[in-house]
Specification:
This protein has helices spanning 2-16, 25-37, 44-64, 78-81, 88-96, 99-102, 107-114, 120-138, 144-152, 157-174, 180-187, 191-195, 199-213, 216-223, 231-235. It is mostly helical.
Length: 246
């Protein structure tokens, strides 16, 4: 709902703009950002969702060549960097959703593009988001995610671990219904995981996603597929299930 509110605020703003304002990102974002910040009873997370909704519309306009915008595939963050600091994070997040195309689904190229960010924190944030976008694009290609992990294995340890987390999360978000965990568990057996000593990270990331998708009964069965050394990470999720959602 809050993400959608951001959409609504920026679309309403667009209706007020003159054609001479097209392509001026602040003309599109400043007023909606203020409106998101004034939402009654919204938490910080809710407001961030609203902010992201604003830039979701703007970045889509860039990708589509609408309202005088274009997406700068060589230097995608220049538009974000020209904004007030409060707007950097949501702008970077939505800009990074398109990096799969800019990087040609190559995490090594993605790392180079992400390194252009205005801060190391935003560079890592952009890389994580970009990897998730790559997984969304390649998940239909069988075990293509393994090739992504292999290429990430050539990067620094920090970038590899960021990549691994995004690969696992992407496999859950875009996997076959009620079988999402299967490829995620398989990812944890990739040789790059052992190379980077990231087994616990991988299996803990898989475990943390289970509550979102499965009942306690299903999680209990899934835990039996974990290696013994990491089964406790899975079993710790049993009983934490939120009865209001699956």
């Amino acid at each position: 709902c809050y993400h959608g509110s951001g959409h609504g605020f920026v679309l309403a703003q667009i209706e007020k703009l003159k054609k001479s304002d097209w392509g001026n990102i602040r003309k599109f974002s400043d007023t909606p950002m203020k409106e998101c910040g004034q939402l009654k009873d919204a938490s910080d997370i809710d407001r961030e969702q609203c902010y992201e909704g604003i830039f979701n519309v703007i970045v889509d306009a860039m990708s589509d060549g609408a309202y005088g915008f274009s997406y700068n595939y060589a230097h995608p963050f220049l538009a974000c960097d020209a904004l007030p600091e409060q707007q950097w994070r949501p702008c970077y997040y939505e800009m990074s959703q398109k990096l799969d195309r800019a990087s040609h689904n190559d995490p090594v190229t993605l790392a180079k593009i992400s390194s252009q960010a205005i801060s190391p924190e935003l560079a890592l944030w952009a890389f994580r988001t970009g990897v998730a976008g790559i997984i969304q694009q390649v998940i239909g290609n069988g075990d293509a995610y393994k090739g992504i992990l292999e290429k990430c294995g050539t990067l620094s340890d920090d970038l590899y671990k960021a990549c691994l987390g995004s690969v696992v999360n992407g496999l859950f978000e875009h996997g076959d219904p009620q079988k999402e965990y299967e490829k995620a568990l398989s990812a944890c057996t990739d040789s790059s995981v052992e190379q980077h000593q990231a087994g616990e990270l991988c299996y803990s990331t898989v475990s943390a996603r289970l509550l979102r998708f499965y009942s306690d009964e299903k999680i209990t069965a899934i835990c039996k597929e974990f290696p013994g050394a990491y089964r406790n990470l899975c079993e710790a999720q049993i009983g934490k299930h939120n009865p209001a959602g699956t």
